[in-house]
Amino acid sequence: MIELGVNIDHVATIRQARRTYEPDPVWAAVEAHLGGADGITVHLREDRRHIQDADVHRLKETTQIKLNLEMAATDEMVGIACRLKPEMAMLVPEGRHEVTTEGGLDIVGQEARLKDVISRLADAGITTSVFIDAELPQIEAAARIGARVCEIHTGPYAHAFHAQGRDAEASAVVAELAKIRAAGQAIRHLGMRFNAGHALNYYNVQPVARLAGIRELHIGHAIVSRAVFVGLRQAVQEMKALMREGAAQGE
């Protein structure tokens, strides 16, 4: 059954805007859990722009559902992950000047180093994931370095969906969705888990949720944005319902 991982980074973004103690990401994780989240995702960035080290430790201690730590493949972050032991660590590209993650990880260009990182994380008992574009060479490289999960970057699909007036049948949208579908087939054929995420929202999530074999979607900004108006628990419930409805109509 399809699962929802809720990214709570932007709860911390609001807090850090005032350098204060509220809203508390740990409280957000509890509310997300009560709303039906199957996991909590946080990205501990090198510049600590939102989630802080103390947040990650408190989340590990208090959350009763899966904790997914997004991280750059640096020695510092690998060390933190190995000490913390989240249920899953997802390697993502990271740029100090980007507003959010702008593309998938280039595994092909740094295969040897990433294989070592994956090995270190796996030795610590952590399920390893990679955030990649829907490209066959990257998927094949993910398998070679030992990743257990591939999360396909859905940003191009989401941007096409918005640009085409939320028309799911527009040719540009159909083409981007086809790339994700083909990527998912390749991931599963190579024995890895097929996840997806980035820029998914209440309007565009169902076509992705319908894809064959998809296991988990990671969604953050849209849910936190909705929560401003209805509360986080309800925002998660609404997203989970849309996902489950889409999956029930699956391919």
N-end to C-end Cα span? 14 Å
Secondary-structure element series: EHHEHEHEHEHEHHEHEHH
Uncertain segments: none
The count of β-strands is 8
Mean pLDDT: 96
Q: Please identify the structural class as seen in this structure.
A: alpha/beta
What does this structure look like?
It contains eleven helices and eight strands. With 251 residues, the chain is of the alpha/beta class. It has one domain: Aldolase class I (TIM Barrel, Alpha-Beta Barrel), CATH 3.20.20.70. Helix 5 packs across helix 6 (136-145), helix 7 (155-163) runs antiparallel to helix 8 and helix 10 packs across helix 11 (232-248). The longest helix is centred in the C-terminal third of the chain and has 19 residues, at 171-189. The mean pLDDT is 96.
Summarize the structure.
With 251 residues, the chain is an alpha/beta fold.
Q: Topology of this structure?
A:
Blueprint: E1 3-7, H1 9-18, H2 25-34, E2 39-43, H3 53-62, E3 66-71, H4 75-84, E4 88-91, H5 111-123, E5 127-132, H6 136-145, E6 149-153, H7 155-163, H8 171-189, E7 193-197, H9 205-209, E8 216-219, H10 221-230, H11 232-248
Parallel strand pairs: 1-2, 1-8, 2-3, 3-4, 4-5, 5-6, 6-7, 7-8
Task: Using brief descriptors, characterize the structure shown.
251 residues, alpha/beta, TIM Barrel, globular
